[in-house]
Amino acid sequence: MIPSSSTSVLALLAVALLCWGTWGNTQKAAGKWRFELYYFDFALGTILIALLAALTLGSMGDGFSFEDNLAISGKRQMAMAAGAGLIFNLGNMLLAAAVSLAGMAVAFPLAMGMALVVSVGWTLVWNPAGSVGLQAGGLGMALASVILVALAHRGRGLQPATGKRPDTGLKATLLAVLGGVAVGLYQPLLALSRAGDLGLAAYGATVFFAVGILLSTLLFSLYFMNLPVQGDAVPLRYYWRKPHGQHIWGLAGGLLWVVGLISLGLAASSAPEVRAAPALMLAVEYGSGALAGLCGLLIWKEFAGASGSIRVRLLLGLVLFLVGVLLTAFGRQSV
After folding, report:
1. Domain assignment of residue 267, yes or no
2. 3-state SS string for the chain
3. In-domain check, residue 196
4. Relative to the CA of 12, which of 141, 151, 257, 269 has its CA 20 to 30 Å away?
């Protein structure tokens, strides 16, 4: 089912923004459930909702069904989509690790700011289009926002009684930044999996992307369980010790993220006369990081104990991030 009107395209973009900007709340809602274990449920949620959507919505309508698309798509395109899922998953797991240490208000703006710099910077180097000046200015704003958010996190971590900072301060910043680099690299490979006559459609690309997430989680989660970013190593048997209701949060996180990916994919697959401008799609994709940061700040009160100057620094970082996203989006308006 492909959107046939501008209204439906805008609705899909709104869904994508909401899903990608709020999935991190499920990790926070899981409480003390270690992110290494939470992420097994996240990966299961991605593959379950991807398959369900492909076998229902992907098989409805007048165009090629999900099964038809698989029959004509190339094996290389399938491998590219799975590889994109692996690259994304590495970045997203590093982001989840940063959330567990520093919270959403810090981790998401840092990661998505770096993802914007990497993704758009790659495009400017290899395939420049649109206003290079505006895009470069937007990337500069994004880098400035990364620095301000990192400084806000550093200031928040200061312990007044001792004047010392916890060991997790720099670690969380590095995890978020490295996660953002990986997240910024998966898009070109996913786009290649959908290009050409043998390319995958939105639902097919999402399924193989989710397969890459699931398979790589078995490797990455086990690594972090044995070499944790904080605390003791986590035996795999701990996954089964929590009540079944605890697993719902991870499944919900994976569901939200995949619904956002499908929504963006469908919006990009719409007819040219109703398709949203690339600038708007870019703004939705990366602007979700600011929404997630606001969730951490307003819903979870992550900076409640910080001084006014530290909160101002964080808010300024979020504003600069949004300005950077908008400048970059306007710079790509003519693409």
Report:
1. yes
2. CCCCCHHHHHHHHHHHHHHHHHCHHHHHHCCCCCHHHHHHHHHHHHHHHHHHHHHCHHHCCCCCCHHHHHHHCCHHHHHHHHHHHHHHHHHHHHHHHHHHHHCHHHHHHHHHHHHHHHHHHHHHHHCCCCCHHHHHHHHHHHHHHHHHHHHHHHHHCCECCCCECCCHHHHHHHHHHHHHHHHCCHHHHHHHHCCCCCCCCHHHHHHHHHHHHHHHHHHHHHHHHHCCCCCCCCCHHHHHCCCHHHHHHHHHHHHHHHHHHHHHHHHHHCCCCCCCCHHHHHHHHHHHHHHHHHHHHHHCCCCCCCCHHHHHHHHHHHHHHHHHHHHHHHHCCCC
3. yes
4. 141
**Residue with structure tokens 């009540």?**
243
Q: Is the pLDDT of residue 4 over 70?
A: yes
Number of domains in the chain: 1
Spatial separation of the C-alpha atoms in residues 121 and 124, rounded to whole Å: 5
Is residue 168 very low, low, confident or very high in pLDDT (cuts 50, 70, 90)?
A: low
Whose CA is closest to 208, among 68, 88, 84?
84
φ and ψ at residue 271, rounded to 5 degrees: -60, 150
Whether residue 152 lies inside any domain: the answer is yes
Residue matched to tokens 């620094």: 313
SS3 sequence of 177-217: HHHHHHHCCHHHHHHHHCCCCCCCCHHHHHHHHHHHHHHHH
Mean pLDDT of 271-284: 89
Query: 1 lies in a domain?
Result: no
Quickly state the pLDDT bin for 166 (edges 50, 70, 90).
Answer: low
pTM: 0.94
